[in-house]
Design goal:
The structure is a homodimer of 389-residue chains. Chain A contains 18 helices and twelve strands. Chain A has 389 residues and is an alpha/beta fold. Chain A has a seven-stranded parallel β-sheet with strand order 4-3-2-1-5-6-7, sandwiched between helices. In chain A, strand 5, helix 5 and strand 6 form a beta-alpha-beta unit. The interface between A and B is large, with 52 and 52 residues.
């Protein structure tokens, strides 16, 4: 049966991986309903033509004439602007990829969720900053939420949710980043160039720094607590520099189930696209004999306070995770522009969390307001600290 | 709902692990129908009383008076002899553990299978020597066959059989045994004392030698080909000295699912007992951070010809696996009594297979006859070889 698909964020990295899988899928397996992108009319139109989408929508209204022109004669509808994005997200589709990054992705993802069906979630903020709102929408709409980042998708694959009482622990793996074996003194003096050298994944600067501080794992810990039926104290982080094991689930009978693979986003996206079945993905297969060894160690709480801060934010609830996320983004941007020391990233996050406490966040607009307030506070705190020499 | 359970081989190692799990299970989860043992009337009666079984049966008829006496006043029925064993196996039960070792276990396991329900299979010969007969019985009776050795249970846990076309490979892990890194010259001169030193599992002499030759993995390869919906060329063996990963399944989307755990038979037995749910088992949890590293390598076909011989037996079909298994048992016994060199074990197996070809085996009695003929032939071949110095 043909599955209708909408992609929110069709021209970004996750969106392109999704469209590559759709193009390689057997004829008739998928039909594309809506493709949504930010600004790039040419790329969006080209993708919409290749996938024979019914509608292509740009978030930026200024791009509408270029989009119309690029789609002329294709029979594909064109639209633009924030309202058009929400409308496209709300059009009936069996499966939606929510891959618009940051706060901009929240309203479209929620609109897709509220009309039911399956939402593959690549937008981190949805669960970190607006977790309770999203989970309520899932329940109200009878929708299905599938995680598509490697770690949570791995846990989803290893998790049998039939009887949550039999799940003892969920284990998120972490590469440990470029400072896995560094001393505190080395980390204090770390430059942006040193910090972006991620050992396994090739990523953008922001997420590379999050890997170096392990704030990425802190955010994933918060997401995991939203997604899976286990209490936060049963979610652990395990350092695993080869990043071959993406996640594990410990069961009460002693079984530990794990999902492994090469670092390629197409695997978790393919899993979500075909779920509860599977589909082919043309990714490299993990060759354990060639890899030779997998290493594991416990994360160091002294050098990586991000994990403790994430647990604190999770336990505090309300707006605390939003504050953590916003303060971290501000601190990372300052570190990248050499206006903050590496170890001060966690310090800025912790102080921002302390100052702003745990305000309630009952709506997406409240989340977006708190995000802005936390950014302003984090900027103030960061500017009061000395920049690195 | 209470699940009724019969244990064929209640006083052996697998049987004792099973009864330990039943005793620790919540009141009312299980009710024991029949317990069957070989000769040990006292142990059988004691177990039957503890588990409040309805009937206890000894294979050895001479033990009946002792069993009757030990069960006096308990209300538990007592019986003995091969016919009584078959009758006990055929009594209605939701779940049966088939853990009588060797050829003696074949008829009782088949009797249990034919009355339907779930059969947890610990008897290797059932699938290696009588695979086609057992699989036909599973289909005819609409029964469910669950593997309870660590490797196949691991694969069963990692396998989603919904769409076999999406399963690319099944990977059996092997510890590599005591000669994993030995030279061919060292293996040629190996003594029984050196060969039984298994690095991970504590096992009997026969199975320790099978681990040293990797014939255990060859037999498991044959079992895996019977149990799982993949062709033999898609079943691989991966050497993994820590034996923490018990089995893996490679899917077409790039996902590799694995089951890990400490080496404790109670985990796979608990999995089979509770399947498709799970139950608690008081086994040590695998601590990957404490273990530190997992190693993997491809098996060496020169030093370990057992894997090739098993593949050849599997492809030949008919009685070839029976011949391989019988010849191996003879050769191992001779090696243990210093009447055969270590490397000659595989040589005896290969020559026996060459001489006897691929006779058809249409019934359990034909299997048992061929087993005897192969043993005799293997003895002749082995005695024609020089004993080690």
């Amino acid at each position: 049966m043909t599955r209708t698909v909408t992609i929110l964020g069709a021209t970004g990295s996750v969106g392109r991986s999704t469209t590559a899988l759709l193009e390689a899928a057997p004829e008739g397996a998928f039909a594309v309903e809506a493709l949504v992108a930010g600004r790039d009319a040419a790329a969006l139109a080209e993708t919409a033509r290749r996938l024979r989408a019914r509608i292509a929508v740009l978030a930026d209204p200024a791009g509408l004439p270029a989009l119309r022109e690029a789609l002329a004669g294709s029979g594909i509808e064109a639209a633009a602007g924030p309202e058009a994005v929400i409308e496209a997200a709300a059009r009936p589709a069996d499966w939606t990829m929510a891959a618009i990054v940051g706060a901009a992705g929240l309203h479209p993802a929620l609109a897709a969720l509220r009309r039911g069906g399956t939402l593959a979630l690549a937008n981190k903020e949805a669960l970190v900053c607006a977790g309770e709102i999203f989970l309520r929408a899932v329940r109200d709409a009878g929708a299905t939420l599938l995680p598509v980042d490697s770690e949570h998708n791995a846990i989803f694959q290893a998790l049998d949710a039939r009887d949550p009482a039999m799940v003892e622990r969920i284990i998120l793996t972490a590469s440990g980043g470029p400072f896995r074996t560094a001393s505190l003194a080395e980390m204090r003096a770390a430059t942006p160039e040193q910090a972006v050298r991620h050992p396994v994944w090739s990523m953008g600067a922001k997420i590379s720094i999050d890997s170096a501080t392990m704030f990425n794992k802190g955010l994933e810990l918060i997401e995991a607590a939203r997604l899976f039926p286990v209490s936060p104290d049963r979610i652990e982080v395990l350092v695993h520099p080869q990043s071959a094991v993406h996640g594990l689930v410990q069961y009460a009978d002693g079984s530990l189930l794990a999902q492994l693979g090469t670092p390629d986003m197409r695997t978790p996206i393919a899993h979500a696209l075909a779920w509860p079945n599977r589909m082919r993905a043309d990714v490299a297969r993990l060759d354990l004999a060639a890899l030779g060894r997998l290493e594991f160690s416990a994360p160091d709480p002294v050098r990586f306070p991000a994990l403790r801060l994430a647990r604190e934010a999770l336990l505090a609830g309300g707006g605390a995770p939003t504050i953590l996320n916003a303060a971290n983004e501000v601190a990372v941007a300052r570190f990248l522009s050499r206006r903050l020391g590496f170890l001060d990233i966690a310090r800025v996050v912790e102080e921002t969390m302390e100052r702003l406490g745990t305000p309630p966040v009952a709506s997406l607009d409240a989340v977006i307001d708190l995000d802005a307030a936390a950014r302003a506070e984090a900027e103030r705190i960061a500017s009061s600290l000395h920049a690195p020499a």
